[in-house]
Amino acid sequence: MHRKQYMSRLIAAAAVALGLWAAAGIEAAAATGVSVEHAWARATPRGAPNGAAYVTLVNQGSESDRLVAASSPLAVNIQIHEEKTENGISRMRQLDGIDLPPGSTVTLKPSGIHLMLGLKQPLKQGQTFPLTLTFQKAGAVEVTVKVGAVGAMDDMSGM
Amino acid sequence: MAGNGDHSAQPAAVEVRTRSQGLPWGPLLGALLLVVTIGSIAWFHPSQTRSIGRSFDLIDSKSGRLVSDRDFRGKWLLVFFGYTRCPDVCPTTLSEIADTLAKLGPLAGLVQPLFITLDPKRDTQPVLADYTAAFDPRILALTGSPDQIAAAARGYGVYFATREAGDDYSIDHSAAMYLMRPDGAYERSFLSTAGSAEITKRLQGLLQSR
Q: pLDDT tens-digit profile of B115-171?
């Protein structure tokens, strides 16, 4: 084989390998079986500094995983909180993360777990915004969040 | 007391003395029973129940003026305690209240929903006015000094406590809605999980029967 041919083939192989490696990174989440569905949030009244976003986390893989962080350009920070009403008293507690056993689905919803956003601006009904969820194994997964009414009870994916 | 002869006379004398000096337990117990019975009937009969304790002196977030529960006589009050930074239960409940007003149609004019903040430090008047208006402009938000808020919560039997979380804090709180009659008496409460369909049905029954 001539050197030129060898070099161009080597470069081509390297390019393919690089492409595959990058693609593998992007597909890591899919490969682990972790996906995020139905990302939605409630609109916030003017002046309200906190917003609530909800997602459905699905782990179709054979290994457990854990949601450990979330971020968005619209929020200074995002915490995971769980609301529980017991004996008529409503309490909120921060969670360090959300475990996803293999084959599990965890649905965040009002009167349950939510992502509490420290907002930079109010959320308006009808807008969308990006949200990045970070999993221990699956890494970062980005989704688009749809903003519903201020007291919306579930995802308006039909709208 | 010691007699030395006539024992049959002594006991009779002693008995008479005891009866006139001691308490008439029979009639007393009877009277107590009567009072307890009447009191119990009065306590449990709704129209007889006074709004003991469920009074308040607070600040109207729209006008900035002092208002008391007495200013709302003639209206049914639907009272909910919460705070604007509560992203979950409070928007849910206020949303149900807004839906209830819509479902009531013209009857809604007989009802005054009140949102009383448990976080007067951060829930300033403009913040409150904007907040409730986002759900329905007919919902009135009230605030006050920490003492006034505490007194109102105490009157309604509402539990609330601050939970620190770093620089921030959340407030654990009773999440029921309280319904007060136009005469100021307490009618009933609704669980925070009660939806607008249930609340509307109950309210329609009460509003239409008067």
A: 999 999 999 999 999 999 999 999 999 999 999 999 999 999 999 999 998 788 999
Smallest CA–CA separation between A51 and chain B, in Å?
6
pTM of the model: 0.76
Class of domain B57-208: alpha beta
| Residue A68 falls inside a structural domain | yes
Residue A80: CB atoms within 10 A of its CB come to: 19
ipTM of the shown complex = 0.75
Residue A55 lies in a domain: yes
Instruction: Give the pairing of strands B186-190 and B160-165.
Output: unpaired
- The residue written with tokens 């349950």 in the block is A112
Per-residue pLDDT tens digits for A17-51? 776 655 544 444 555 789 999 999 999 987 788 89
Q: Which of A40, A44, A90, A119 is the best substitution to test chain B (most B C-beta atoms within 10 A)? A: A90
CB contact under 8 A, A42 and B176: no
Same-domain pairing of A4 and A58: no
Q: Using CA atoms, how far apart are residues A51 and B157, in angstroms rounded to an integer? A: 29
For chain B, how many residues are written? 210
- Rounded to the nearest 10 degrees, the angle between the axes of helix B89-104 and helix B196-208 is 40
Question: Taking the domains of chain B in order of start, what are their residue ranges?
Answer: 9-44, 57-208
The residue type of A48 is: A
Q: Look up the domain containing A22 and give its range.
A: 1-32
**B158 in contact with chain A, both atoms CB, cutoff 8 A:** no
A156 in a structural domain: no
Q: Which of B84, B88, B135 shows the shortest C-beta gap to A111?
A: B88
**Residue of B81, B86, B88 for testing the chain A interface, max A β-carbons within 10 Å:** B88
Which of these, B118, B178, B175, lies nearest to A88 by C-alpha position? B175
Q: Do B113 and B97 meet the contact criterion of CB atoms below 8 Å apart?
A: yes
Strands B76-82 and B66-68: unpaired
Please count the other Cβ atoms lying within 10 Å of the Cβ belonging to residue B151.
17
